[in-house]
Sequence to fold (456 residues):
Amino acid sequence: MPDTALPDSWDARAKASSFFGFTDLPSIEARGTVVLTHGEGPYVVDTEGRRYLDANSGLWNMVAGFDHPELTRAAQEQYARFPGYHAFFGRMSDQAVMLSERLVEVSPFETGKVFYTNSGSEANDTMVKMLWFLHAAEGRPQARKILTRGNAYHGVTVVSASMTGKPYNAVFGLPLPGFIHLTCPHHWREGRPEESEADFLARLVAELEETIAREGAETIAGFFAEPVQGAGGVIPPVEGYFDAMLPVLRRHGIPVIADEVITGFGRTGEVWGCESYGFVPDAIISSKALTAGYFPMGAVILGPELSDRLDRAVRVIEEFPHGFTASGHPVGCAVALAAIDLVLNGGLLDNVRRLIPRFEAGLAKLAAHEHIGEWRGRGLMGALEAVRDKATKEPFGSELSVSEQIANTCTDHGLICRPLGQSVVLCPPFVMTDAQMDEMFDKLSTSLDAVFAEVA
Ligand SMILES: *Cc1c(COP(=O)(O)O)cnc(C)c1O
Fold:
């Protein structure tokens, strides 16, 4: 037996056995991976016993922290009662029915219906298939194009990746034809020199009008938007964006879908991001905080008009031929019911609202740094964008990987935050205390100073 046959560290085992998605290879080659064993409130603990304050709620989703007894109890009780069932052939669990009722009740819709998936990507794909299906049943088979925005993140399946407005999808030969990306509504970066916010907004609305005229309204199946772009770098839209864009879409009969996978269930300080921006979409895509990250689950929540139209379309061919084996899983539904209760009635949303001023003040304070170009955010999601020159907004050279360096330095200090482009993103769990939030900003501040002292 060669004595080098088996790698012994968790890092070596992880690298030898597993693929990491969305992971910068040179970075893990230089620094190693982090293998985690458990969590305590907003902290996670690795195999070496190191504790990290997770300022990203896992991947935007673990809003109740990593050891919430009510959520684990809901899962355990449901596993004991009925550990799995599908939602095909006219059968589904009682938990799925109860969750659908609850989702419509807490939605901005008077009435509506729910369809389950196992992820946000699948929920977006499902929504696109619903739109294609119902337009075809209504005699508009050509209505297939999907409008989204640059920097949008809608997922990784072939359709949701095509909706995503990120250049990295080119390595897969995506987007598919018919997925049209409008300008990202980020005034600070996308606005032209001297262009006011109002002029920028007018340009975006004109672009939408021109796109619809060029493509033909009858060829467009729907418009998808995150109320606040998340994985694009936490980008709240320019002031007045939805108020200006939606009337144009409505005039042309184009359904408006809010991708609330991150913003849903309290992240922006309201239950839904669309509430924070004062609009009611035709459907909502939900996942992530839906189960507080304790179970993989996504949901399409259709408002009254789309659910009636889909019902009628289904009657035409007597079946909607779509569904995932595990969708509407009774354990996921039981966990989601408990998570919704915890957020809405158990004090989590109240804590978000209480923390927002402290969060914004912390971001604003760090944004005074000469190498932070702007801070932006909404509710408990925020970003700090690093720049070489604050006045000209000139970024650091990409070869410096400044945001990665900041995030890596934070990790060394026991704080997990996420590099996204040239910015560092914070998306803390809803259970944070004031002291934990102060710890987060202290560690980030120390790391910013250290990295900028090196690169600037
Ligand atoms: C994460 C995310 C998705 C994709 O969800 P997955 O569960 O990772 O497939 C879709 N839309 C938005 C806005 C997201 O943040």
In short: The CA atoms of residues 49 and 104 lie 43 Å apart. The domain at 34-67+347-455 is CATH 3.90.1150.10 (Aspartate Aminotransferase, domain 1).
